[in-house]
């Protein structure tokens, strides 16, 4: 459990550093870093319990998207202001690197295996974002429609 806490803190600090590099101002950077910590916590807990990459990454990206949707409505900024920075720890950059490394080393079987794993991770992140964003848009559309009917 101590390892997971260190990883969550590291994910948050690294995301905050990325925000500084990309000139994200004030509380937006702090909120994005907090979202990254939440996402990495969900991923780490599910991975530790033995869930597959697909389930762990989908749940983590869904959680981050819910967090970003709620926060963006509260603060009145676009959802992507929190969604993109919060996703930084989940991006499978290492998988992409090792896929190319194995290709350069002419180790095609490992390259294919790592490439498929990376593709599954990327797809699961996209599925998590897509499903939550879609349901969020539907929900807010229905809420606005009911509010207009009550007038």
UniProtKB/TrEMBL annotation:
Q: Where in the cell is it found?
A: Cell membrane
Q: Which UniProt keywords apply?
A: Cell inner membrane, Cell membrane, Membrane, Transmembrane, Transmembrane helix
**Record keywords: Nucleotidyltransferase included?**
no
What's a Pfam family in this record? ThrE_2
Q: What InterPro entries does this protein's entry cite?
A: ThrE_2, ThrE_Dicarb/AminoAcid_Exp
Q: How does it sit in the membrane?
A: Multi-pass membrane protein
Residue ranges spanning the membrane: these are: 6-23, 30-46, 52-70, 82-104, 119-142
Asked whether the UniProt record includes Transmembrane helix among its keywords, one would answer yes
Which positions fall inside the Threonine/Serine exporter ThrE domain?
A: 7-134
Q: Which family does it belong to?
A: Belongs to the ThrE exporter (TC 2.A.79) family.
Name of this chain's protein = Threonine/serine exporter family protein
- The organism of origin for this protein: Candidatus Cetobacterium colombiensis
